[in-house]
Amino acid sequence: MKRLFTLTLLTVLFTTYTQITEAQTITSINQSSLSISKKLKSTLQIKNKERKKIRRAYTEYYSRLASLNSLTGSSSGNNFGNKEHLLKIRLQKTVKKALKNDEVLFDKYLVETNQEDFTNLVEKVKNTKVVRLTDNNSSKSPQKRSTPTVNLKIK
User: How many angstroms separate the CA atoms of 82 and 68, rounded?
Assistant: First the structure.
């Protein structure tokens, strides 16, 4: 009877600890995205509508990054490779769309957040199942002025 009671108590404690940890993660994600969106609102002089879109983008980015980090040690997490870069591209594209594709505001955003522009690295060609990967920084020599591209067909 004592072992059954001890086992039940330990199960309840582990379950409670897991829920508290998840709640702390969610709270920290929400606080981080809120503080970044408020900071960007004041520095970029944007409206509340754009700030809310940017906050949602950062909340999605941080939550996906947290779940990716939790999968890193598991066997299924290693199958995906490094997706942090793809998450950053998605974040930047969402922020750029929230800023109504205004290049000046987006450049200010990149400077304020100390990032490079990754939005042009991956683009989907319209009406086809081809993804074009471009490397804008691959050759700096004056002989090669064209941007090297790789087309991947999606089946």
Answer: 9
Kindly give, in sequence order, each residue whose CB lies less than 8 Å from that of residue 113, ignoring residues fewer than 6 positions away. Answer: 36, 40
Q: Distance between the two ends of the chain, CA-based, in angstroms?
A: 59
Name the percent of the chain lying above pLDDT 90: 8
Return the top range by mean pLDDT from 10-14, 43-47, 64-68, 118-122: 43-47
> How many Å apart are CA 77 and CA 147, to the nearest integer?
33
Long-range contacts of 107-113 (CB under 8 A, 24+ apart): 108/43, 108/44, 109/40, 109/44, 112/39, 112/40, 112/43, 112/44, 113/36, 113/40
Lowest mean pLDDT of 15-29, 109-123, 140-154, name the range. 140-154
Spatial distance between the Cα atoms of 19 and 120, rounded to a whole number of angstroms: 39
SS3 66: helix
Contacts of 133 (CB under 8 A, 6+ apart): 121, 122, 149, 150, 152
